[in-house]
Write a structure and sequence with these properties.
The protein has about 160 residues and is mostly helical. Helix content is about 50%, strand content about 0%. It contains three helices and no strands.
């Protein structure tokens, strides 16, 4: 007879034999849904950083260009106003010189003679006139109130 073989024992299923489910919290150093460093997907975050940096640089340059255009526009306005001021100052000086020439007494006399006016031969001064004392200003009263003269009349 053949040698008897011992029957194989079947191991009972224990909790140690069943694999444990993975914890729902991420491991330290990793964020949920993102691959670990050095694995595929890292290029995507690098690309985002480069795009964000490019956007910041372009926005900064546009801001500088806009500010420069604003300042240039202000300088053009300032230059135009300075030219107007210089022109107006020159015209003012010319007009002052013209007034000084026209108000010169000898010029006034010569223009009067040319117009047919003669210089008076005798000048008579008028005597001073005394004026009466000025009358006081009437005062207005509010409607419904009695003035001192109305109150005196009704007594």
């Amino acid at each position: 007879m053949p040698a008897a073989a011992a029957p194989e024992r079947v191991r009972p299923v224990t909790a140690a034999a069943v694999p444990e489910p993975r914890p729902s919290t991420p491991r330290p150093g990793r964020t949920e849904g993102r691959p670990a460093p050095g694995r595929p997907g890292r290029g995507r975050s690098m690309r985002r950083s480069v795009v964000a940096s490019a956007v910041v640089v372009v926005a900064s340059l546009l801001t500088v260009v806009g500010a420069d255009a604003y300042l240039t526009q202000g300088q053009v306005r300032l230059t135009r106003m300075q030219q107007q001021l210089t022109s107006a100052s020159g015209r003012h000086r010319d007009l002052e010189a013209q007034v000084a020439t026209l108000t010169n007494p000898s010029k006034v006399v010569s223009e009067a003679e040319r117009a047919g006016l003669d210089a008076p031969t005798k000048v008579t001064d008028l005597p001073a006139v005394s004026l009466p004392a000025p009358t006081p200003e009437p005062t207005a009263t509010a409607p419904g109130t009695r003035s001192s003269t109305t109150a005196a009349r009704t007594r």
